[in-house]
Amino acid sequence: MTDYLPIETPHSRPPETFSHRSQVVAFTLAVFLGMFGVHRFYAGKILSGLLMFFTGGGFVLWWAIDVMTILMGRFRDAQGYRLAPPTPDGQQGRRQITNPPHHARPDQRTLAHQAPRSEEALAEEELDRLLDDPLADEFARLEREMGQDGHVEAPEERVPAHSHR
């Protein structure tokens, strides 16, 4: 059953090449001068920058979409490369990310002293996790309390002390 489950590993995607233009600079330009298309001039998109300049940021709608696109890291330069995300070491220039942005869940991470698990073992563990019922123990405890037949005995009927005739 687990032979047909798709498993994506960090090595199944090719490395991505980013632009030498910075995402942080483009975002800053877009926020403060984006209505005039300055961030598009920075990215090398001269024609759309001019169009944005003369339409006031595409009547604000185009500007808002560009700000969100840059913020999400999906904005591309004139050559089609995504703008470079910020790096802790401040590295600039066109670079490749050898490990694409894929982060394994904590239970799938391989520790240094563990042998790497096969894709089949990972699929088996994922299937077990999906089929595991977190309430099964609680239901079993309640069934033991109620008895094997699953019925709770009804309390005896009480006759009211003050009955009027």
From TrEMBL:
Source superkingdom: Bacteria
Disordered, as annotated region: 81-125, 140-165
Domain TM2: 20-67
Membrane topology classification: Multi-pass membrane protein
Residue stretches spanning the membrane: 24-43, 49-72
Composition bias, Polar residues: 89-99
Chain intervals with Basic and acidic residues compositional bias: 104-120
Subcellular location: Membrane
Record-level GO cellular component terms: membrane
Keywords on record: Membrane, Transmembrane, Transmembrane helix
Designated name of the protein: TM2 domain-containing protein
Organism for this UniProt entry: Lujinxingia litoralis
Lineage start: Bacteria, Deltaproteobacteria, Bradymonadales, Lujinxingiaceae, Lujinxingia
